[in-house]
Structures are given as C-alpha cells and as structure tokens.
Amino acid sequence: LSLDNIRHKILYLSSLWGGEDENKANRRNQPRFNVVAKHVFEYPNILTLSLEGNIQPTISFYNRTGYIYVGGNTGDDTGADGADGKRKLVSLPPRYIATSLYNRLLPRWNYHLVHDAEIIKDDD
Predict the structure, then answer these.
(1) Exposed / middle / buried, residue 59 (Cβ in 10 Å: 0-12, 13-18, 19+)
(2) In sequence order, which residues have a C-beta less than 8 Å from that of residue 1 and are 6 or more positions away?
(3) Mean pLDDT of 7-23
(4) pLDDT at 87 exceeding the cut of 60
(5) Which residues, other chains included, contact 31 with Cβ-Cβ below 8 Å and sequence gap of 6+?
(6) Which long-range contacts (C-beta less than 8 Å, at least 24 apart) are formed by 20-28?
(7) CA atoms of 103 and 1, how far apart (whole Å)
(8) Is the pLDDT of residue 118 over 90?
C-alpha cells in the first residue's frame, strides 16, 4: 500500500460516505474526514482493495441495481427513489463494498432475476 494509493481511495470513499452523514457531521461540528475515519476503522481491509478493480465496480453495481444512489461517482443515473420521489443515498457499510462482485454479488443477482422470471412465467 502506497500513501498515494490510499489517498485516492480515501478521497473516493469520502465522496461516497461524506454526503450520507454530512448533516450529522455538521450538527456536531465534526469534519467530513471523521465520518470516513469511522467507516475505515470499522473495516480497515477496505484500504487493501483496488479502487478501479474492486471498489468502483462494486459501487456501480449497487447503484445500477437501485440499492443506492451515488449520482456522478459512477457515471450512470440510476438509483433508488424515496417516498417523496427524490433520490436517496442509502448508507453503505464498508463490508458491503468489500464483498466480491464476481464471486458473490453477481451470482446472487442472477439467481434473483431468474427466480423472478420463473415466478412471472408461472403466473401467466
């Protein structure tokens, strides 16, 4: 792990986590960095993951499936809408980001889609 490598990950993660708790941080006069530090302290192994190979593709997956809304961070405009119709950012624990996209998330997502298609087919 190089300092430069970690710096890029922290900047990316602060753009992700900084917005979700920014109001809480402002109420307590807590800088955004402390919110990020709390998440990194919770799961420090996230700093060992590749930003381009692990973190960004996993965030993009959660964003595209509607689990979270990240906005400009992943380049697409899909996401979850709240009850008021406005886009919401769902808190995403660092352990979820560290979950293997290809070995865990995508196979389960594929099963979910196939299972839903079978239910719809059986209803017809």
Answers:
(1) buried
(2) 47, 48
(3) 76
(4) no
(5) 25
(6) 20/89, 20/91, 20/92
(7) 24
(8) no
SS3 readout for the chain: CCHHHHHHHHHHHHHHHHHHCHHHHHHCCCCHHHHHHHHHHHCHHHHHCCHHHHHHHHHHHHHHCCCCCCHHHCCCCCCCECCCCCECCCCCCHHHHCCCHHHHHHHHHHHHHHHHHHHHHHHC
Compute the distance between CA of residue 40 and CA of residue 118 in angstroms, rounded to an integer.
40
Q: Which two tokens stand for residue 99?
A: 């979950």
Residue 19 pLDDT exceeds 50: yes
Q: Is 109 exposed, middle or buried (0-12, 13-18, 19+ CB in 10 A)?
A: middle
Answer for the pair 98, 43: CB distance below 8 angstroms, yes or no.
yes
